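explain this:

___
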Amino acid sequence: MTVSDDQNLTGFHAVAEQDARVLVLGSMPGIESLRQQQYYAHPRNLFWDFMGEIFNAGRDISYPDRLQRLKQNHIALWDVAHQCERRGSLDSNIKASTIIPNDFNSFFINHPNIKAVFFNGRKAAEIYQKRVVPDLLKPFRSIECHALPSTSPAHAAMSRKEKLGQWLQTSIFTATITS
């Protein structure tokens, strides 16, 4: 299969401790992330740069250590889609009709301290609203949800500084994780 062909993709398991308070959701891992079996593995994706500045969980430490730092700070990491068809890595190439969302009811049951969901990009928020919210159990529909600018290199409409500023302004790194 070539990069120009649609590929049936399966995402990763959630990275979360039971006491997680914040869930950060992407849409579906990109090709490089799937190849390396690591969230946000593309070297130009800013996610780990931001986590480095905020939690000392940057690319200068091992991937397992980065994940551990997020978990120590009550941050869970996952994607909205469990499976989908997509050509390449761009969210805009996800075939909406093929999306199978992750099981968020089970996730929220097993992680009862989740106070907020933050989406790494508009597409993740869109998929969640269309494909997850209608099937969520009523108590989970009231969990706060916030869309943040995508850390993907494909989202070039904002500068790194602007993106980081919006990530820092959210309660993801302040009141939500300390309450």
Remarks:
- The beta strands are 7-10, 22-26, 75-79, 81-86, 100-101, 116-120, 144-148.
- Helices lie at 31-36, 47-55, 63-72, 104-110, 122-132, 160-169, 175-178.
